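Workshop exercise sheet. Pairs work together: one partner reads the sequence aloud, the other fills in the structure field after running the prediction. Swap roles for the next sheet.
Pair: D.N. / O.F.
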Amino acid sequence: MKIINILIFFMPLYIYAQTITIAVDAVDGSKKATEEWTPTIDFLNKKLPQYNFKLYPFIFTEFTLMQKKIEEGDIDFIISAPGKYINLEVNQGVSKILTLGDKNGVARFGAVIFTHKDSVIKKISYINHKTKIVAIPPAKFGGWMVAFDELITKGIDIDEENVKYVDNQEDVIQKVKNHKFDIGIIRTGVFEKLQKENPLILKDILIINRQKYKLFPYIVSTQLYPAWALAKTKSLSDKISREVAHELLMHSLISNDDNKNYQGIHSYWTTPYSYQSIRELMERLEKGPYENQSFNIIKKLAKRHHESFYLIAIVFILIFIFLIYAKFTTIKLKKKDKENKLLLKKIKNIAYNDVLTNIPNRLSIMEEFNKMLTIAQRNHLRLGVMFFDLDGFKTINDILGHKTGDRVLQDVASILKSLLRKDDLYGRLGGDEFVIVTLGMKNKESLEKICTKLLDKIDSIFLPSKIKENFGVSIGVISIVPNKDTLIEPLLHDADEIMYEVKQEGKNGFIIKYI
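Structure field:
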């Protein structure tokens, strides 16, 4: 009877929950899109139970139908590739609220232009109208439009009859490696993804027009553009869009440990980027909402030829208005971009730094550790991992209070900042646990010096004498030259185990396992 009463109590919530439909660009088919995005829908239903979120995947041939559904008020949010977002922004008045990053938190993309290493094409200027090119269809954006614009901008004449489109990015790579085409064009991030499965994927590849951008980890040959957008339709209230944006952004900031109940959802949302560069690219290439734009202008001019005087006057007025509008829009966009950069900087600081000590947190440590491990593996360098926690820290919290405990943790953070080299990695894993990672220390004595200094410095932290007697630090150290099979988690685990050996032997000391 009690269960029935509970069900009756909660039944109105489900009956009257407002249905929110989220359309998703199913570039790889509806089935895959459903598998990929259902966890995100489930997450929103759990976090915002007052609404009933539904998924509506649409393939390219259903785009016109989806536009009609937006106009009829049947769609509330759209998650789509940037090209489709601009189309919907221009024609249906949707507005972006977030930008989606990949698993590395990268929310920009470009195109990679490449050839076989034995090809005579060594520079982008060597490409011409006779060059055979293979790429992803323009409808999928897939890097092709970005690369095509890059080639046109550099004055390179492309014969589209020599351009072959295939559905799979891997097929593009294989066709170039097999000498079936001179040039391949793919989206950024594809080589790096495939390299995890096949480290030799780039062995026979030459990257054309290679570019480098700060904080962009992928191979790229072109300008960078913002990635997928989450946009709201005009029929949806701002209140609901803010609630959804808040939940997705907050989820993007929490640690991996906190994410264990929400595996599979897209976790790398950020504040919306400016999509003006995408709009300008599509205008230049006359794609999407700007298709046949030049033809339509010429048609209007021809129709009004007999009124040339008035036409010229109108054109000049329009140019003047356009210049004023462009100036105003540029100023507005610069201001908005500045605000977004400041906000992004704040969000990044929260995501990667420990709030209490302002030193790297677990997420930041794991990312940087992975980079150091890769460098050590590639260059056969020695890697040192020091895992330590504070002896008697619980007593400090219990007797002197958490305020004093927080001050001690902050003192430890200050010691690490002053003690270690610029290239050493250090941070707080959580509680009173800290980690230090060194690269290239050639002997055991160097590690012993760090441990000894750390013991002395932590011992100098001010505490009442009775508490001081049981206060100290236990340090477990493992030092190895990693091979290709070495992983981060086992190294941390081994250092942690060594630290507990120190505790069993009386605490406030260190043990180094030098392999």
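Discussion prompt: The radius of gyration is 29 Å. What would you look at next?
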